[in-house]
């Protein structure tokens, strides 16, 4: 059994920063759970284009307001606490944070820890040996 607090992660190698976001990696591939869990904060005013070509992601909003755009269909969805979305078809999408935005994100396959979005908004598919 693993018990870990957000405070245990902040300031360690499990806290990964991008230019517009901070991801606290609570559960990683090394825990052998079959998924990873992140507590992610997106800065107010940020617009992030993503394409999880290698992953499925579930997102549960816990703080802030934003908008999710399906870049393939143009559909827009208002996001607020208590809402979730699932990127299960590898859709290209854009997240716009109207305020500071915080969410719990679950990835399958699991992240190994150091992933950041590439120029296409993709997280590379890494194994523990790649880290």
Automatic annotation (TrEMBL):
Catalytic activity as recorded in UniProt: (2S)-4-acetamido-2-aminobutanoate = L-ectoine + H2O
E.C. number: 4.2.1.108
Gene3D superfamilies: Jelly Rolls
Superkingdom of source: Bacteria
Metabolic or biological pathway: Amine and polyamine biosynthesis; ectoine biosynthesis; L-ectoine from L-aspartate 4-semialdehyde: step 3/3
Keyword list, A-Z: Lyase
Family as reported in the entry's similarity comment: Belongs to the ectoine synthase family.
PANTHER family linked to this entry: L-ECTOINE SYNTHASE (PTHR39289:SF1), PTHR39289
Function: Catalyzes the circularization of gamma-N-acetyl-alpha,gamma-diaminobutyric acid (ADABA) to ectoine (1,4,5,6-tetrahydro-2-methyl-4-pyrimidine carboxylic acid), which is an excellent osmoprotectant.
The name this protein goes by in its record: L-ectoine synthase
Source species: Amycolatopsis thermophila
């Amino acid at each position: 059994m693993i018990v870990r607090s957000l405070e245990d992660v902040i300031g360690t190698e499990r806290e990964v920063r991008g230019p517009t976001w901070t991801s606290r990696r609570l559960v990683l591939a090394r825990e052998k759970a079959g998924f990873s869990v992140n507590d992610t904060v997106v800065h107010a005013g940020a617009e992030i284009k993503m394409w999880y070509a290698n992953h499925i992601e579930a997102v549960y909003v816990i703080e802030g307001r934003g908008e999710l755009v399906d870049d393939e269909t143009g559909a827009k969805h208002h996001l607020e606490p208590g809402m979730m979305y699932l990127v299960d078809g590898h859709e290209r999408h854009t997240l716009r944070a109207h305020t500071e935005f915080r969410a719990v994100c679950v990835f399958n396959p699991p992240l190994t820890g150091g992933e950041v979005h590439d120029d296409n908004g993709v997280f590379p598919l890494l194994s523990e040996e790649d880290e």
